[in-house]
């Protein structure tokens, strides 16, 4: 049994690769290095630089390494970019994953774990958002992830494929002891941007709106520690192999934090001011996204034990001390 990790040199993927290797799982990483970092892939994993849309190559890699499970992290993730330039999101997230599945089905890979997102829900009717809430994405990013979930549902009904879509809320934090952290270029996410502003590594943080219908007027998100996300993938893979994994699950901490609370935590833990300016709302952002992760708790026994704002920001700050983070 070998796990194929597509996008394994990226932020969440790299943490999952380490978690799988910790449990003695043979791992093959596929990454085109368009945004991933080769040096995060440990020597214990076999590395293949390839595009997931190369179906023939994907099928061959699966056959060569006796892959029985694939986990896909590869894709475009920026909400703002998805609104301004949606074709890249549709091409990579939908087109790329459709082609990847061609290779996996041809190679008869029976298990698939898909990185999905809270953005499939859009503006929620109920908060915290339950696992069975209606999906109504408000931006192309969420729409592409939902499209793939729908495709996977049809495939699993028709073919010998069991899958789960893990709907991440806001992946954050780092594993500084292993040199793993969040490193996007350009960086668009709140926590690394707030830290970089505090450390003088960028100009002032832009806060996207202070007129939202929330207690302090800034958006509320559910930040979940990336190492907790990694645990959930390991548990989901085991449940798929046992034949008892739900098709979709929320992964969040059930705690909401506003942008101003995140900034306050960065200032408190770093001892530095976060220079900032309040600017217009970012198109595509909902006001509040907080998860109820009942299904992951019940079906997987998952506990997001590291997902406090202090731990997340503390680990992210420690990672930013690493020269690689610069
Ligand atoms: N945000 C912000 N300034 C930034 C980056 C993000 O004000 O430089 C806000 C963003 O509008 C959202 C929250 O922080 O309300 C989290 O955004 P992020 O891009 O980190 O994650 P997303 O919720 O889009 O997945």
Précis, in short:
The chain is an alpha/beta fold and 326 residues long.
What does this structure look like?
The chain has two domains: 2-123 and 130-172 and 223-251, 3-Layer(aba) Sandwich (Rossmann fold); 176-221 and 254-325, UDP-galactose 4-epimerase, domain 1. Helices cover 38% and strands 18% of the residues. It contains ten helices and 14 strands. The strands form four sheets. Strands 3-2-1-4-5-6-11 form a seven-stranded parallel beta sheet, with helices on both faces. Strands 12-9-14 form a three-stranded mixed beta sheet. The two termini are 37 Å apart. Bound molecules: uridine-5'-diphosphate. Uridine-5'-diphosphate (UDP) is lined by residues 79, 170, 188-190, 193, 205-208, 219, 221, 259, 282, 285. Uridine-5'-diphosphate is lined by residues 79, 170, 188-190, 193, 205-208, 219, 221, 259, 282, 285.
Count, helices: 10
Can you summarize the main beta sheet?
7 strands, parallel
> Compounds present?
uridine-5'-diphosphate
List SSEs in N-to-C order: EHEEHEHHEHEEHEEEHEEHEEHH
Q: What is the strand arrangement across the widest sheet?
A: 3-2-1-4-5-6-11
Low-confidence stretches: none
What count of domains describes the coordinates? 2
CATH architecture of the largest domain: 3-Layer(aba) Sandwich
Radius of gyration: 19 Å
Q: Summarize model confidence as the mean pLDDT.
A: 96
Number of strands: 14
What would CATH call the class of the largest domain? Alpha Beta
Class by helix and strand content? alpha/beta
**Straight-line N-to-C gap:** 37 Å
Our estimate of the beta-strand percent is 15-25%
Q: Which fold name corresponds to the CATH topology of the largest domain?
A: Rossmann fold
CATH superfamily of the largest domain: NAD(P)-binding Rossmann-like Domain
- The proportion of residues forming helix, as a percent range, comes to 25-40%
Broad shape: globular
């Amino acid at each position: 049994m070998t796990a194929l990790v597509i996008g394994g040199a990226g932020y969440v993927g790299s943490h999952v690769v380490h978690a799988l290797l910790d449990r003695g799982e043979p791992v093959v990483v596929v990454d085109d290095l368009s945004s991933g970092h080769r040096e995060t892939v440990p020597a214990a994993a076999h590395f293949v630089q390839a595009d997931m849309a190369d179906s023939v190559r994907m099928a061959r890699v699966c056959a060569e390494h006796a892959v029985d499970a694939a986990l896909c992290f590869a894709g475009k993730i920026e909400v703002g970019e998805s609104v301004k330039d949606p074709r890249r999101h549709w091409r990579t997230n939908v087109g790329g994953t459709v082609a990847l599945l061609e290779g996996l089905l041809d190679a008869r890979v029976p298990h698939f774990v898909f990185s999905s997102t809270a953005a499939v829900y859009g503006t929620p009717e109920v908060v915290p958002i339950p696992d069975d809430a209606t999906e109504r994405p408000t931006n192309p990013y969420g729409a592409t992830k939902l499209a793939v979930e729908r495709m996977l549902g049809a495939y699993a009904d028709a073919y010998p494929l069991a899958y789960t879509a893990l709907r991440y809320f806001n992946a954050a934090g780092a594993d500084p002891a292993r040199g793993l952290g969040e490193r996007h270029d350009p960086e668009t996410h709140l926590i690394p941007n707030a830290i970089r502003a505090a450390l003088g590594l960028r100009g002032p943080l832009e806060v996207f709106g202070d007129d939202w219908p929330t207690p302090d007027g800034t958006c509320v998100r559910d930040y979940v520690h990336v190492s907790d996300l990694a645990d959930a993938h390991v548990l989901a893979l085991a449940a798929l192999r046992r034949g008892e994994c739900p098709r979709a699950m929320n992964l969040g901490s059930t705690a909401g934090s506003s942008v101003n609370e995140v900034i306050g935590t960065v200032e408190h833990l770093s001892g530095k001011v976060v220079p900032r300016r309040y600017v217009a709302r970012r198109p595509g952002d909902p006001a509040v996204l907080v998860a109820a992760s009942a299904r992951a708790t019940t079906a997987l026994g998952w506990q997001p034990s590291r997902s406090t704002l202090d731990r997340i920001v503390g680990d992210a700050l420690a990672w930013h001390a690493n020269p690689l983070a610069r």
